[in-house]
Each structure stands twice: as structure tokens, then as C-alpha cells.
Amino acid sequence: MTRRLNSLLFLAAALLLLNCRPEPQSPVAESSSSDPLPPEVSVPQSFRYLALGDSYTIGESVAANQRWPEQLVNRLAGWMPQDTLIDPVILATTGWTTSNLSQALTASGYEETTWDYVSLLIGVNNQYQGLTLDNYAVEFTQLLDRSIACAGGRTDRVFVVSIPDYGYTPFGQSNQVQISEELQAFNATCRSLTLDAGVAHFNITPISQQWPQQEGLVAADGLHPSGLQYGLWVDSFSSEVKTLLRP
Question: Would you say domain 46-245 falls under CATH 2.60.120.200?
Fold first, then answer.
């Protein structure tokens, strides 16, 4: 009787121990589709680009794919393969002054959309038509403010490109000194107003002044930059634009 009782007690103790053992844990998964991305991995984004300007932005006398906004987007797309770089929307026409661009922007409806980045290059026709520097300063400031608004109020998503110097072209070389002096004043005003607004300013004017020492910088019309020159512009500031989009 005692032996049977001891056996029963031993069996009960064994069952109790089995029930108290922790359940085996399944291996921890390294990742899952619901896991957040690691901090160093950016969530892919789509970037919409609005380019505002005149003949230099629409790319007078060059193929569409040689315009500098197009070349910029292609460069960024190569550096940011995880993102979608949408083709630029260009609001620009040969001969436009600051006033013309302002009127066109109002009529375009583009201000009703929030853009991921916006560029502004305007002023050469103000100089060419003999309009005053004071008038340019007022209208450029207004356009810059509207560009910032188009970017959702983000000054870090807007950039301004300086006015190239057409004195260094076959068209302008006979009057190069006067053209260069006047454009220098317009560009100084442009740069000062841009930096005061907290917006990036990219000075491409020295590149435009490399003709005729460097061949191939002028389009067939003898006045506007070639696709090669636009590519040099993009070389000079594309990495900074990438930083604006992906700090």
C-alpha cells in the first residue's frame, strides 16, 4: 500500500513539473512586412517639380530633353532610384519679363497645387527691354514669395538660378561690356533678395561667360545656351537640389 502511494505521489509530481515547464519560444523573425523601416531607410516619395522662368527655362533652341529642368530631373532620378521623380511642369516662354511670368502664373492655376520643389529663373528680359532695376526687385520679390507658397511655404524646397550673361554669345558680343554690367546689377539684386528670403541661390553666370574660350556652349541661334551648357549648370547645383529633397 505504501509503495503504491509513493508511486502515485511520484507520478503526480512529475505531471506537475511537466505542466510548469515554459513553452518553447518560436524564433524571432528578422523582419516582417508590418515592421517599420529602419531609421536609415527613407520612405519612397514622389516629387513634383514646377519650373518658372523664361527662354532659359523653356530651353529655346534646344531639344526638350536638353532643357536644364529636364536634365536636372534625370540626374536626380539616377541618384534617388527609390523615389519617383516626375517630369517637370515648366511655366516659361521666350521673352517673358517678371510681369509676364506673374500674369501667367495667375492664369495657370498652378498655385492651387502644392509642389515638392520649385525653381525660379527670371530677369533677362527686364534688362533687355530696359526696365528698371527697382521694378525688377519688386516683381521678383513677389514671384519668389509665390514660389515659396507653391512649395507649401517651405523655403527649403525652392531655389533660384542666376541670369546667364548673353554678352558672351555671338548675338551679344558687340555690346558685351554694357550687357555684362547691367546683368551684374540684376544678378546682385536677385541674389540678395533670394538669400534674404532664406532660399537657395545657384550662380551659373560664370559658366555662361566661358564662351568663346569653351566651344559648344551656345545654341544654333547664337544667343541661348546649348544643351551642353545647360548640363554644366546642372552639374554645378544638382547635388544641392538633391540635398533639398533628401537632407
Answer: no
CB proximity list for 119: less than 8 A, separation 6 or greater: 49, 50, 51, 52, 53, 57, 69, 147, 158, 159, 160, 161
d(CA 121, CA 141) in angstroms, rounded, equals 12
Within 8 A by CB and 6+ apart from 212, the residues are 168
Q: In 3-state terms, what secondary structure has residue 28?
A: coil
Host H or E run for residue 90: strand 89-92
Which pLDDT band, with edges at 50, 70 and 90, does 18 fall under?
very low
* Angstrom distances, CA of residue 140 to CA of 51, 91, 136: 15, 15, 6
Name the residue ranges covered by the structural domains of the chain. 46-245
Q: Cα-flanking dihedrals φ and ψ of residue 219, to 5°? A: -70, 175
CA dihedral 66, 71, 74, 79 (to 10 degrees): 150
pLDDT digits (tens, 9 = 90+) for 153-167: 999 999 999 999 999
For cell 509513493, name the residue: 6
Task: Report the predicted TM-score, pTM, of the whole model to 2 decimal places.
Answer: 0.84
Number of H helices, E strands in the chain: 9, 7
Q: At what angle do helices 133-150 and 176-196 cross, to 10 degrees?
A: 40
Residue type, 32: S
CB 208 within 8 A of CB 229: yes
